[in-house]
Amino acid sequence: MTMPWRAAPRAALTSPLTLIIAAVTALLACFLGTAAVLQASAAGGAAVAYQSGIACPDSYGPVFSKGNVPVGAAPEVIAAVQRHASAHGFGAPVTSRYTHVVRGTEFNGDSNYKVTLGYRDQTGLDHLELAGGSRDAGLWLGTVVAGAEKIGVGTTPKYQGAALPPVTGLYRDLLDPAPRWWCSQQRNAVVDRLANDPVDSVMFATDAKTFDDAVRAVGLPVIKTLYLSFYEMPPKTVSEAEDLLERSKALIADVQEDLGARGLGDAIVGSLPFERSVVISTQAESNVLVSILPLAAISVLVGCAGIGTVALQWHQRRHAQLRLLSARGSGPVALGLLAVAELGLPILVGGVAGAVLARLLLGVYGPPGEPDGGAQLVGFLVAGAILLASLALLAGVIGVRTHREFELGRIRSGRRKGVKLLVIFPWELLTAGVALLGWNRLVDYGKASRIGNPLPQVDPLALTYPVFVVLTVGLLAARMAWLALHASHRARLWSRPALQLAIRRLASARAPVTGVLVIGTLAIGTLATGIGIARGQEEALHTKSAIFVGAETRVDTESVIGTGKTPLPSQISGSSTVVGELTGTGSVVLVVDPQTFRRGAALGPLSADEVDTLLGRLSTPGAGVPAIRIGDDAAQKPGLPAGLGDARTVGELPMFPIIGTKAGYVISRESLSAAQLTTVPKWSLLSASPVAQLTEALTAAGITQPNRITRESALDALPFYVVSWTFSFMALLGAVLGVVAVLSLLVAVEVRRRQNALAGALVLRMGMRPRALLASHLMELGTLSGLAVVIGVACGISVAGLSVPRFDPATFLAPRSALPNPTPFALTVLAVGVLVVALAGWIAMRSVRTARTAELIRA
Fold first, then answer.
1. Do residues 525 and 792 touch, judged by C-beta distance below 8 A?
2. Which residue from 71, 224, 593, 692 has the fewest beta carbons nearer than 10 Å?
3. CB-based contacts of 64: which residues, under 8 Å, 6+ apart?
4. 494 and 602 fall within a common domain
């Protein structure tokens, strides 16, 4: 009696589709379980990468800095940090030293110069652009002062008669914003030309000895700034960031203890600039994990339901064998183990493949971050637990089913009552109640959402709201379909036999039909919701920053430029425009150049054609100043500020770059006189060029720029990303549910293969054409998948459109988050649905063509 168990793996090959479905079901369950853990860990890694990108590259580790350090104490401080750095896994520190401004420095007999002496060891000179001279020991002078004052290489500066080291090189001055390597040194290494005299300069020493000689020559008792930092590789994961933070704390403690023993405890102060970033990254990982836990639980339940369905299908196929084995003394446990022996290997292979695929495809479905090694281990352990649970469920379902069917008496009526109770129970009310609870949490989330909270946590119940809304609609649709199929025996459409046969086949399989309809609707609706909300937040970040900044780069200037007196530099004139701004009068007034505005401005969600048309009307003649009205009419004061004349509205827009949705006007610069232009207090340059190119061109033209802002730095993008990463898992769940729905449809076709084959063969012998029979199958399957597609897409898009604005992490900035264009998604789902129906129809027709009618009748 051991032969069936020994031959079970080979016997499984008689039903390859069952093997494939069992393996794929286990693959999807383990894939989702592992993906949930990896998704959260990758979100933490992505947050670490984002924080590393906006932080200075030498601020990941510890920073030692102090002002007014005695000259004699500096060497001991530097030596102490160097001694302890390697013990904690750090390389040699980069030391930066700057003096106070040395006033009265003399060049070529003129003592009106003011210089700051500076030195950065290691590769400091490599990050300066040498315009003339060499790297011989001495001082490097900036080209701004050197070129304006005709100071050449070889000049020996003096201070109160004492000679300083000679000028051996001329470097191009560091501009604001400083290059990334100099980020932390911006305050000392970059001369603000707007706030300082033209003769100010930073002179860098080529080596430490030259710097010490210059300090002694000047006679400075203290160093203005002593700064020691480490250029470490940026951490990729939360674990790496936390380890770096702990090592940094230990290094600071050791250095402070060492200097304290030497009586120099106050000579330097250690700090951890990246500590806040580590906290934020850890919170991001935690928020995403907590937010997706309900979805992860749903995914595991879906996988278990799939395994249960496979078990029932296997029981149906092996019913005769199981009855025989039971009659010969095999108990439910042994029969359950028979199912495990037959399907256990494909389930095991599928589960392992699912866990591996979850790791390999993380870059496709997950955040752009590296997961922790510990998270990968936890993910694989979760997959192992799901595998064990799947095998136990397989054995349990078969054991319980065989026990009730072969060992208990008179269970049929009780079983039918139980099934009937499950069918009539109003599950829709239960899911609708959960959806209502989630909606209440979602409303509260929308009210509490503020950009000041760097990491808004998506409430788990709020996250389940879209899923349960879609599930409620799917259950309602399934109940309506169940009732319609129950009453379908009254249909008399034999004049259209293909349609009548399709209806009868659907009615004979009400349970599988309604199950596939629920899963398909839930899959498509969840996928639409996840994609809609995730992409909606990404687009919201793009459009909000476009409206807020007005362009890729905005640079404030002291006065209007782009005129005959101060033309725009040629290298940026083709991608830039100048705007003026007046505020404080109840309305914002933006002064633009209609001819060049579209060159550099970013319009966000506004229609380019509409804006161009309205800008063209700003030059129309007539009484008053032609103006485009922005924002709410009732909130605006009539007319323009005093001195600009009366406004003559030529069009209206709901928002505009820089103004946003506030009440305001847009007028043309050409409509104002030269005297009126001087009354505009603020002028800005909007450009599509990078900020570095813009700054260089304006500096070369002698145009000062007190403030700069770019779209990348205007808003904290991490809150948007966290919401997007959270809902990308919902999209992943929808995609997996879609695969489950397709498999369910194919299983339903496979389970009824013998019945469909016999019925199809008989109707063909009765005269029905094969094309009509194929049309009948396509009607049956097309109706089922078409309902799922239509209901799922409509419900998913509606829920996403309602939810996207609620999840906006910056509700106070215009425009509010909105649903992206759903047309591509709808067309893609429709195309996939058509392909699935065609495949299922081909399988059904293939079983009819290969059927042996006599054998089917005897069976």
1. yes
2. 692
3. 77, 81, 93, 226, 227, 228, 229, 252, 255, 268, 269, 270, 271
4. no
pLDDT of residue 498: 73
Helix (H, G, I), strand (E, B) or coil at 313: helix
Percent of the chain predicted with pLDDT > 90: 25
Distance CA 316, CA 512 (A): 14
Please check whether residue 801 is in contact with residue 819, taking contact to mean a CB–CB distance below 8 angstroms.
Answer: yes
- Residue scoring higher pLDDT (186 or 409): 186
Q: Which helix (H) or strand (E) holds 666?
A: strand 664-668
Read off the pLDDT of residues 524-545 as tens digits, 9 standing for 90 and up: 999 999 999 999 988 888 888 8
d(CA 545, CA 47): 20
Residues 186 and 222 in one domain: yes
d(CA 838, CA 774): 10
Helices (H), 2-71: 3-6, 8-11, 16-54
The 10s digit of each residue's pLDDT in 132-147 is 999 999 999 998 888 8
- Domain of 496? 420-547+716-858
**H or E element that contains 829:** helix 823-849
Residue 446 CB-density burial (10 A; 0-12 exposed, 13-18 middle, 19+ buried): middle
CA neighbor of 48 nearest in space, from 277, 362, 289: 277
CA–CA separation, 120 vs 94, rounded Å? 7
280 in the same domain as 261: no
Residue 55 is predicted with a pLDDT of 92
CA distance 393 to 389: 6
Strand pairing class (200-205; 625-630): unpaired
Q: What is the CA radius of gyration of the chain?
A: 37
Q: 669 and 735: one domain?
A: no
Short-list 366, 57, 77, CA closest to 222: 77
Mean pLDDT of 189-216: 83
Show Cβ contacts of residue 6 under 8 Å, excluding neighbours closer than 6 positions.
none
- Report d(CA 92, CA 84) in Å as an integer: 10
Q: Which of 273, 264, 270, 272 is nearest to 252 (CA)?
A: 270
697 shares its domain with 726 = no
Residue 45: inside a domain, yes or no? yes
Residues 400 and 460 in one domain: no
For the chain, how many residues are written?
Answer: 859
Q: What are the residues whose beta carbons fall under 8 Å from the beta carbon of 120, sequence distance 6 or more? A: 94, 95, 96, 185, 204
Q: What are phi and psi of 858, to 5 degrees?
A: -65, -35
Average pLDDT, the chain: 83
- Other residues' Cβ atoms within 10 Å of the Cβ of residue 642: 8
Does the residue 49 lie in any domain? yes
Residues 478 and 495 in one domain: yes
Cα angle 449-453-454, degrees, rounded to a multiple of 5:
120
Q: How far is CA 562 from CA 580, 610, 656, 694, 701, in A?
A: 12, 25, 22, 14, 12
Bridge partners of residue 201, in order along the sequence: 115
In degrees and rounded to multiples of 5, residue 377 shows phi and psi of: -65, -45
Number of domains into which the chain is organized:
4
pLDDT, greater one: 51 or 267: 51
Edge-to-edge, what's the strand order for the sheet holding 682-687? Answer: 647-653, 625-630, 664-668, 588-592, 576-582, 682-687, 553-557, 708-710
Would you place residue 634 in the very low, low, confident or very high pLDDT band (cuts 50, 70, 90)?
A: very low
Confidence band, pLDDT 50/70/90 cuts, at residue 94: very high
